[in-house]
Amino acid sequence: MPPQRERLGHTIEGRRAVLEALRAGTQVERLYLLESSDRGPQMSEILTRAAELSIEVIFENRRNIERRARTRRHQGVIARAQDPHYTDFDELVSAATVTGRSAMIVVLDGIEDPHNLGAIARTVDAAGADGLVISERRAVGVTPGAISASAGALEHVSVARVVNLSRAIDRLQDAGLWIVGLDDGGTHLHTDVDLQVPIAIVVGSEGSGMSRLVREKCDFIVGLPMAGKVESLNASVAASIVLYEALRQRSA
After folding, report:
1. 138 lies in the same domain as 236
2. What is the CA radius of gyration of the chain?
């Protein structure tokens, strides 16, 4: 029989994403698992944690799982969870600028592809950045696709949504952060800028890059050397390169 047409609300899909959600203490209401799934280490831990947290587990056939899925990366594991929690912007800035550490925040200016958001969030987590700032309008939010693409990293990364990205950058500058924009036409190489100071790295949209107002507020515009025939890199790849250059400089 097809699944009941219940309102699934927010979903987390994929073994790694669901496991990270459970590890992070995300409020999961119910798990839907493919009845023929193998019981490898990830699935075993998912079931163990679900039992410990008294989360209802429902086993379903492939057709029903496919009906519930909102992405193609569910791997037979779907969690129904509460709506995603966004961090208060001022709280993110305060946490990033505590005495004794150098802030590193990533600002996304119009990223619309959930896979790019997820991939960037994964690198933000891996590189030890403080969090992400995204716009409420004309930009992707924390969706099932983004969570899946992040391999669960979005369950650990602080994400703040703001109404006005330009004003948010003003606030970051007031807090002592240097604004580093990432653009093909950058006047500096990413390796030539001091990324050990408190910084906010701005990544523009997939098509048009940074908006004019945001670009004008940047203290530096950095670009990546391109030796091949393509003109630019994917937004998430470019962001990852700059984040890891910042990590390299800070670890030296």
Report:
1. yes
2. 20
Does residue 171 lie in a domain region?
Answer: yes
Which of the listed residues 64, 81, 98 is the one where a domain comes to its end? 81
Domain of 209? Answer: 89-251
- On whether the CB atoms of residues 235 and 115 are closer than 8 A, the answer is no
Last residue of a domain, one of 81, 101, 131: 81
Q: Which residue in 208, 121, 103 sits closest to 158, CA to CA?
A: 121
**What is the SS3 assignment for 34?**
strand
Distance CA 159, CA 91 (A): 11
Are 15 and 77 in contact by the 8 Å Cβ rule? The answer is yes
Q: Which of 88, 65, 64 is nearest to 18 (CA)?
A: 65
Q: Per residue in 115-170, pLDDT tens?
A: 999 999 999 999 999 999 999 988 999 888 888 888 888 888 999 999 999 999 99
Task: Tell me how many degrees the CA angle 84-69-136 measures, rounded to the nearest 5.
Answer: 30
As beta bridge partners, residue 104 has: 199
